[in-house]
Amino acid sequence: MTPSIITLLVVAGIVLLIAIGYINHMVEHNKVEKARLKTELNDRIRRCSEVNETFPGQLMTSALKLLLTRLELNATQRLLLLQKSDASLKARVAELEALVAQGESIPVNNPPNPIMTEAKAKDVRFLLETLHGQITRAAKDRVLPANEAKHWLKEIRHLLVVLHIEFFNNLGQLAFQQNQPGQARLAYERGVQYLRKQADPAPYGQSLKAFEAQLVRANALLQSTLEPSSDEVNALTEGLKTDEAEGDWKKKAIYD
User: In a 3-state reduction of DSSP, which class is residue 256?
Assistant: First the structure.
């Protein structure tokens, strides 16, 4: 065997080892990427389903329900491509496709869930943030056209304002029912301040007027509780007269 042949065999062996190493690396990389994508898609499905099922009924619309169902369907279809033999995924895809096919006639069964506490308001705000993230990602992946994604991001900002309107109004009404005009005033003051600082307050003009009217009501109730009643005024007047009489008597006794 000549030196040149030996050299060629060595080079061929090195190339083969490099090729095997590269192939192994690619196989491992594909496994890792597939696992990562599965995790990501499952997370998207979970988040879309959570918002879809738990969003308060008074804020949910058929258009929003349809959007969430479309996003969940897309993620489930992509996951099915990675798990083609998964019967439960196939069934879920068929179920979601049937819902999407109904368009805006899609049933909205979310029960109303009044926003009565700070904690509840934060929970709903978190759902809106989750929805914002899903829409942004869907636009990036071109699942949603850019103009549609822009429309929904604007709608999320609107829903956030509507959430605050309901929250402050519920707080104020509850305070009135519990005969706490001071707490009612605080709630409506917060509502007025929140609406006035909106970049575009025009759509919320009616809500602002309603808050201002309730603020006037709360202030009037507070004022009436601070003013003494007629009985208290009479008792106070009689008390002053008695004090004056006693004072005059003591003065007379001293000077006599």
Answer: coil
Task: State the residue for tokens 């109303």.
Answer: 112
Residue 239 within any structural domain of the chain? no
Q: Comparing C-alpha atoms, which of 160, 111, 138 is closest to residue 48?
A: 138
Rounded to the nearest 10°, the torsion over CA 206, 212, 214, 218 is 170
In a domain, 31, yes or no: yes
Q: Are 96 and 90 in contact (CB under 8 A)?
A: no
**Alpha-carbon 159 to chain mean position:** 8
Point out the domain boundary residue: 111, 138, 158: 111
pTM, 2 dp: 0.78
32-54 pLDDT, tens per residue? 788 899 999 999 999 999 999 99
Same domain for 89 and 14: yes
Residue 231 dihedral angles phi and psi, to the nearest 5°: -65, -40
The answer as to whether 37 is a domain residue is yes
pLDDT tens readout for residues 89-115: 999 999 999 999 999 999 999 999 999
Whether residue 187 is contained in a domain is answered as yes
Instruction: Please answer whether residues 110 and 57 qualify as being in contact, where contact means their C-beta atoms are separated by less than 8 angstroms.
Output: yes
Closest residue by Cα to residue 106 from 152, 54, 64: 64
Could you tell me where the DSSP H helices lie in the chain?
A: 3-54, 62-82, 87-101, 118-140, 146-177, 181-196, 205-226, 230-255
Q: Are residues 152 and 164 in the same domain?
A: yes
Closest among 99, 108, 102, 120 to 58, alpha carbons compared: 108
> What domain range is 68 assigned to?
9-111
Nearest CA-CA partner of 170 in 187, 154, 153: 187
